[in-house]
Amino acid sequence: MAAVELGNKARATLGHMPYAGYRDAAKKGTLLLAYADEQIVGYALYGLTRRRVRLTHLCVDPQWHGHGIARLLVDWISDQHGDYPGILAKCRDSYDLGDMWIKLRFTPLSQRPGRSKARHLLTSWWRDHGQPNLFTRDDDSVLARAAVDLNVLRDLADEERSDAVESRALVGDQFADRLELVRTGALDSEVNSMEGPLRAHCITAAQSFTPPPRVDHAQLKQVRADLLSAVHLVNPGYPHTDQDRYDLEHVCEAIALGLKLFVTRDESLTGILGPPAQRHHGLRILRPLEVITHIDELARAEAYQPAALLGTRYRRQLLGIDAGDDLVGLVNPAAGERRRDLRNTNRGLALAGCDRVGIYDPDGRLVAVIAARRENGALTVPLARVANIGLADTLARQLLFQLRQQAREAGSPILKITDRYVSPALRLAALQDGFNQHDEQLYAFVIDVCGPAKQVEHQAVTAARRVGVPEPAPLRSDMPAVAAAELERIWWPVKIADSALPTYLIPIRQAYSADLLGVPGGLLPRHDNLGLALEHVYYRSPRGTRPRHPARLLWYMSRSGPATAYPAAVIACSQLDLAEIGTPEDFHARFQHLGVWGEHQLHSVAHNGQVQALRFTNTELLTHIPLQRLAVLAAAHQQRGVPPLGPLRIPPGLFAALYQEGRRQ
């Protein structure tokens, strides 16, 4: 509460932060207080992302300015989290605090307009922790896109409006590069119905929103019919009022635009339209506070949508030389491309003997196309397109992962996207996936090595020299876990054996491994070519060993019942991005789009009302390592080769032996 009081006094420069934001940071251990005897004289509120420490608030009591309080706070964060690449903070230039940031050993990283009404310039300040410069900090990438209703817009436009603090936090500088608010036609229509001065204020406030792509009216009509059909089962005759009709149009347009978030403080709207919108269309209707608290989880839900791909009727098919009509929806006119340009590209690749692989949706429309070929030691991608549809982000990430697998199988340590008109969704996904830009091309390392850092560095440097891209920075043998995990993500499938990144052997029953890992097959239909979703959540009791992130996971599929025909074995390797303790209700609300358990099953494994959630990505299936072979390899590393009853941390040497065994064909 002392931090809240200090923050409220400094609201003119810190911006709005709901009380729940302080409470959530305190719960996570990321609210740092500075004391002078018993008096709290300053605080720092920060968050830990996968790539950096994000400093949201740095606040010192004015009576204690000049006493080094800010330096103490920032130095403590660096000392405690030195294994992260650095600290990122954002500050308006108009506050004239540049000298202070420089004294705190921050350097300006980039500059862009903020979300304030005056669009004040906002500088990103970076305090580097001295880690190898292997990380692409894409400061302008948007993690989540959302539409809002008039209630939220009025909160932003009317300074006298009560209870508006949580809505105003949506446009705070700390969320300027992570949350994009989309202006919809439904919102403009409702604003147009207003009278008086507030209408002008709302129009002004909405000018900072992103204009949406043009909505498909036929699709909008179908969405409206589907949503009403579901609502009428419990609420016949809806919509009953003009406000109901506005609410319906808001939600329908958000769905038709492919958005996955809609923000409102209207509990009636949430209660009536929320369940069918999420169940049938994947749109989550949330209060502003819920978006703020779980922005990272929500963003990743929008990006991956694993449930949307599993068991779908999407199909993969080679394109013919005369597939010009199908390609129309993949033209990139914003980059200056014309229809005939894409037709000529397809024809030229066909004549050169390069396969073009298309992905078709259940209605037979071409929604993505990829062409790849091996050239000069690299796997080059001269054609990389994804249509502007709701699943664009999901398809982009799936296709990039498939390309990494293809590069690995071809023995190409460099993956290059050379398509000058690459789709925006694919470009953004590539930058987030660790691609770098060189000579107007995107490239990534695909290092198929499980060994010490020096071996990894040698292969990466050799590949860079051969292909003609910049050489990576040197690696060190005692790389911190956070740095190693990030490198294993952006250089997948590399495994750095002499780093501090831990590995856990995790037991999983066959019924659940079929859902999460696709092994054994046959219980759930899975698309052969789109493969596994990139992200899932595995739940367990918090008793016993609690895995910590980041880490690697080796999955041990147990022989769980007389009806199972598959022997127990180590079957897959994943990257652990998050290991968190919480309540079944909280986890079900946050991760239901990533896991397979319902809330009842979460309660069944809870201990003292708590469950552990393991969020993992980039699952790689291995050749099965049966229990007998596991025992032999474990004994060679002075370990017991018995079936694990819970998470079991294993030494780096045993992990390397198991992983290399699983990679043998």
Could you characterize what this model shows?
The chain has 665 residues and is an alpha/beta fold. The chain is 37% helix and 24% strand. The strands form 5 sheets. The chain has a 7-stranded mixed beta sheet, sandwiched between helices. The model is unreliable at 133-140, 298-311 and 523-532 (pLDDT under 50). Residues 1-155 form the N-acetyltransferase domain. Pfam families: Acetyltransf_10.
In short:
Residues 1-155 form the N-acetyltransferase domain. The chain has 665 residues and is α/β, with parallel strands linked by helices.
Radius of gyration: 26 Å
- What is the strand tally? 25
User: Order of strands across the biggest sheet?
Assistant: 11-12-13-14-15-17-16
Q: How confident overall, as mean pLDDT?
A: 86
**Approximate shape:** globular
What is the topology?
Blueprint: H1 2-9, H2 11-14, H3 19-28, E1 31-36, E2 39-48, E3 53-60, H4 69-80, E4 86-92, H5 98-103, E5 107-113, E6 121-128, E7 144-148, H6 150-157, H7 165-168, E8 179-182, H8 185-192, H9 197-206, H10 217-231, H11 242-256, E9 261-263, H12 267-281, E10 284-286, H13 288-293, H14 295-304, H15 306-309, E11 315-318, H16 339-351, E12 356-360, E13 366-375, E14 378-386, H17 392-409, E15 414-417, H18 424-432, E16 436-438, E17 441-445, E18 450-451, H19 453-467, H20 481-490, E19 495-496, E20 503-508, H21 510-516, E21 535-540, E22 551-557, E23 569-582, H22 584-591, H23 599-605, E24 611-626, H24 627-636, E25 648-650, H25 652-663
Parallel strand pairs: 3-4, 7-8, 7-9, 9-10, 14-15, 18-19, 20-22
Antiparallel strand pairs: 1-2, 2-3, 4-6, 5-6, 11-12, 12-13, 13-14, 15-17, 16-17, 20-25, 21-24, 22-23, 23-24
Protein name: N-acetyltransferase domain-containing protein
Pfam families: Acetyltransf_10 (PF13673)
Domain N-acetyltransferase: 1-155
